[in-house]
Every structure is written in C-alpha cells, then in structure tokens.
Amino acid sequence: MNRTDRLYALVEELRAVAPRPRSARWLASRFEVSVRTVERDISALQQSGVPVYAEAGRTGGYCLDKAHTMPPVNLTPAEAVAMALALRHLDGTPFRAEGRSALHKLVSAMRREDVDAARDLATCVHLLGGGPIPPMPPVLGVRRVLRIRYTDRQGTATRREVEPLGYVGKPDHWYLIAWCRLREEIRAFRTDRIVSFTVLAEVPPLRRLRPEDLDIPYGDVEQLTLAG
C-alpha cells in the first residue's frame, strides 16, 4: 500500500470507530508499518486539516472528531454475512482486497452485539468446492424452527419441522443442514427442493454442527468468515 492510499485508509479506519480511539501500535499492526510511520502519517493528516487529535491515557490513541464522521451504518447480522458471501465473487479479480477493506469498515461501524451475532451466523455457513456460489436463498440465515414442505430426488413430498444448524454452499446448490424432527437425526436439505417454508416462533435448543456431521466425502469445506 502506498502512502497516499494508507493516509486515506487511516482516516477511514478512524472514521469507522469514532469517537473511540485507535492506538499508534494498533494502527501500525493494521497497516503493517512502524509506529513511527503512523505518527508521521497522523502528523501529515493534521497539517492538511483533517480533524485528528490524540487522546491521552492507557486506553487512549488517535481519534477523529465526531462532528466530521458519517452517520452510523446499521447493518443487520444477516446483511453482514450476505456481504461476506457476495465478496466470494471477487475472488480472482483485482478488486478482492478493496472488497475486504470495505467489509472491514462496515463491520467496524456495527454495534458490538450485532458483530457477535454476525460472526456466530457466519460460523454456520460452509463453502464447498471453490468457484462462484449461487445466490443465497431466503431460507438461509433463519435461526428459528422451520416448517418445510420438501421434495426428495424421487419427487416424494413430505412436511417436516426442522432446527437449522448450518448451511453448505456449492457452485450449483445450497444445502440447509438441520435436525429433522421427523427422522430424529441430522439431515441435509437441498434448498431448491424446499417447496415452501414457514418460520415458527420457537427458538430451537442449541446444537453445535460438528465437521463430521456434514458427512462430505470429497472436496474442501471452508467456513465463511467476515474477513471476506
């Protein structure tokens, strides 16, 4: 990253967390430069009129004047995960790094509890086989009991209540991994075979999806992260 890009990125980083401070050491680690370089960059920004000031104390650092920050971005946890999935389509393009940077700024501006919820949701999403992922169907991201009408590969339709555990995306299909109350075991439901679904008010008991529960005999399974 050249100096001009770094100066812009410094301002955006401070804008994303304002009015909270960022220490010179934290910023140096974030941009992979020395603390001295950060201090010189901050001085240059101040001399150019950017309202950056130093906050003293053990938890202090550099802050951007709150009056010059943008309004907060209120992404929902599901929206943040959807953006992380969308960034998968930038793999192999010159804009992947910029996409990751944009997601980082948006996540930094979210409320802490929403960030935690988004990261929890992201751990439920697994990607298989590489390549572009198809659009995310509406059923993904739902964390309550679902009543679904499902058609298997033979065309037989059944009605079931399921407890969502996770989601697996392949280049051709999405799968809902859930505890099936009809079969009393974990099952994978191809989402294009879910004819209809209703979200019930019931929140299912906590069940952790283990790697062995996916039972995928081929390919590499990658867990989605908010790092893009």
From TrEMBL:
PROSITE patterns documented for this protein = WYL
User: Matching Gene3D superfamilies, A to Z?
Assistant: Winged helix-like DNA-binding domain superfamily/Winged helix DNA-binding domain (1.10.10.10)
Q: Which SUPFAM superfamilies match?
A: Winged helix' DNA-binding domain
- Pfam families for this protein: HTH_11, WYL
| InterPro entries attached to this UniProt entry | CBASS_pafABC_assoc_protein, HTH_11, WH-like_DNA-bd_sf, WH_DNA-bd_sf, WYL_dom
The membrane-spanning stretches of this chain are: none
The UniProt record lists the Helix-turn-helix type domain at 6-62
WYL domain residues = 143-199
Q: Which PANTHER family match?
A: PROTEIN PAFC, PTHR34580
Protein name per UniProt: HTH domain-containing protein
Species source reads Amycolatopsis pretoriensis
